[in-house]
Write a structure and sequence with these properties.
Shape: globular
Largest sheet: 10 strands, antiparallel
Helix content: under 10%
Radius of gyration: 15 Å
Oligomer: single chain
Strand content: over 45%
Number of helices: 0
Length: 141
């Protein structure tokens, strides 16, 4: 069970975007706020990708064995709210694309040193890879 209670507040860090497996597309500073709301944890973030401002929101909620993530981002989802669902050990995910669907999933890891949010992507003939890695490692005052 994910518990971000001790990580509430304002954070800074970096995020890396990969459009192809293992090929860094962009690395940019990131600001985020973590709160406990709506029966879950909410991460609101602001950064940029190649100089273009990006804002987004991840709401992570767990009920029994199910995990639901509501995610919206001005760059990746272009403002469309996506719902990712997972159960047990499977990370919350959704599929996109009609003819050759891709899968996007999200994992969040919290340690004393900070938080890492990883968005994975996989598609036809493409093994699962990190498409976005958001590392929050410094608290803001």
């Amino acid at each position: 069970m994910l518990d971000l209670t001790d990580h509430r507040g304002a954070w800074t860090g970096m995020w890396r975007t990969y459009l192809e497996p293992g090929e860094l597309y962009d690395e940019s500073p990131l600001e985020a706020t973590i709160a406990v709301r709506e029966a879950g944890f909410v991460i609101e973030y602001r950064g940029s990708i190649q100089g273009q401002e990006v804002t987004g929101r991840i709401r992570w909620a767990e009920a029994g064995p199910a995990t639901t993530v509501d995610w919206v981002d001005s760059w990746h989802t272009r403002g469309v709210h996506e719902r990712l669902v997972g159960a047990g050990e499977a990370p919350p995910s959704y599929q996109y694309g009609d003819e050759d669907p891709w899968t996007w999933d999200i994992t969040i890891a919290a340690t004393d040193a900070g938080i890492t949010v990883t968005h994975h992507n996989t598609g036809p003939g493409v093994p699962r890879y990190a498409g976005v890695v958001m590392r929050l490692d410094a608290r803001r005052a």
